Amino acid sequence: MATIHNKQQTGKWGEQKALDFLIQQGYELLATNYRVRRAEFDLLMKDGNILVVVEVKTRYNAMLEPEKSVSKNQQKILIQGVEEFLKNHPQYASVRFDIVAINLHHGKMNLMHFKDAFYPSY
Fold first, then answer.
1. What's the burial of 53, exposed, middle or buried (CB within 10 Å: 0-12/13-18/19+)?
2. Do residues 15 and 43 lie in contact, with contact meaning Cβ atoms separated by under 8 Å?
3. Percent of the chain at pLDDT above 70?
4. Which residue segment(s) compose the domain that 22 sits in?
5. What is the number of domains present in the chain?
6. Considering the domain boundaries, does residue 1 fall inside one?
7. What are 116-120's contacts with CB under 8 Å, separation 24+?
8. CATH code, domain with 47
């Protein structure tokens, strides 16, 4: 495993590992680091006919549960971004918010995929 020098490099490395994993699972890539207003989607994927917004969290020796590492404020921003995205892409009738958490511990990678990690609360 390559040495990762800073937070930005770590994030990009983790996003690539998450992307590789999701493609192996049959997902289709729509975009990476896609921006809509204040929101930035790490990965926009398609799972069948479902639009999947994937937030990737890469950590060293993480103690916090990955599904809790996306704050309520960040969830709100992502949800608002998706609402804006859907105005221009109405072909997606269903949206899901997933988290891919990668924990690096003693040179080993542990990747966890949380489907439906959070939901819009209207």
1. buried
2. yes
3. 88
4. 7-118
5. 1
6. no
7. 117/55, 117/67, 117/70, 118/67, 118/70, 118/75, 120/79
8. 3.40.1350.10
